[in-house]
Design goal:
With 158 residues, this protein is an alpha+beta fold. The protein is built from three helices and six strands. It has a single domain (14-144), classed as Thiol Ester Dehydrase, Chain A, CATH 3.10.129.10. The protein has a six-stranded antiparallel beta sheet.
């Protein structure tokens, strides 16, 4: 990420994003974070057996998992994570074209609204050639950390 003004409050690096998602559905599906731009987060996914439906094309559920992953982590990078947590409220998507096994897609999350209590993200999933595969919208709720369950490795008093 260059020195330009950004939307991020405290962006994780690509390596930190990979470490944060190790051992989760993100790793199982093979989602790789590839770019943190001034106003967007991007991740790549290969269509393979774990992410395809029975006809050999990208599964709609895998598209939604990719969109939710990129949008949720982007939302968390826009807030003071010591004081607030970003929690998913709603996701919806339109699937536009199939993508066959062996191909890659790239998801780009950009904010449409960054409010105090909600964020709305548009996530475009495209082929390497830039053709639209899926367009999703994710709404997250920004909640004070007080009263939320502690993060991994924390105690309730922390």
């Amino acid at each position: 990420m260059d020195g330009a003004q950004t939307i991020w409050h405290g962006a994780w690096s690509l390596g930190e994003l990979a470490a944060l998602t190790r051992g989760t559905l993100v790793e199982h599906l093979g989602i790789e974070f590839v770019d943190i731009a001034a106003d967007a987060l991007r991740a790549r996914l290969e269509v393979r057996a774990q992410t395809a439906q029975r006809l050999g094309f990208l599964h709609g559920g895998a598209s939604l998992a990719l969109a939710e992953t990129v949008g949720s982590l982007a939302s968390q990078m826009c807030i003071d994570r010591e004081r607030y947590a970003s929690i998913g409220l709603d996701i919806n998507a339109n699937h536009v074209r199939p993508v066959a096994k062996g191909e890659h897609v790239v998801a780009t999350a950009r904010p449409q609204h960054l409010g105090r209590q909600t964020h709305i993200w548009e996530i475009r999933i495209e082929t390497r050639a830039g053709k639209l595969v899926c367009i999703a919208r994710l709404t997250t709720s920004i909640q004070p950390r007080a009263g939320l369950a502690p993060r991994a490795g924390e105690t309730a008093a922390a």
